[in-house]
Amino acid sequence: MVRAGDGGPIQRLIQALAKLPGLGPRSARRTALALLRQRETLLDPLAAAIEEARRSVLTCRVCGTLDGTDPCGICTDPARDASRICVVEQVGDLWAIERAGGWQGRYHVLGGTLSPLASVGPDRLSIDALLARAAEDGVREVVLALNITVDGQTTAHYLADRLGSSGVAVTRLAQGVPLGGELDYLDDGTLLAALAQRR
Q1: Strand pairing category for 169-172 and 141-144
Q2: I need a labelling partner for 67 at 20 to 30 A (CA). Which of 56, 57, 93, 140 fits?
């Protein structure tokens, strides 16, 4: 039986899994048990994939995404529109936009948002690198694709102010009623944003 104080390999596996987003102690125990029961089909391939990622995945020095090359495949793709940069908070946001398939420009990953409560100021984010990229010849538009949270909106306003003198167009993602959404079920903030940004 695995006890809470046991420092053996099973407990260390559970503790490591419990640190992952979306997995609490109970889910971590179930996941560890499934991995250990199916070593050849689950545990061994997972361990190999983790080791390969640890050795091979790099942070792109241009945009900040994760890839097997530096600069990444997006930054070096000649088919991408280098005149447009989409600014996102985290790599997961970049992946979400890529899944949607509608963006053919480049990206810039900030690494988070401004958050006075968490002591995250401009120096802790990749803002200076963004300003330098926006000042490069040929950059015409910076799209602020930040989450619609208090910190996301604060960061978007800060970036818009800083980019104001760069001469590039600064745009933001549209906000409002989602496709298939029913007005009666939307919150007041979403309805107000949709009315303010009507077209």
Answers
A1: parallel
A2: 140
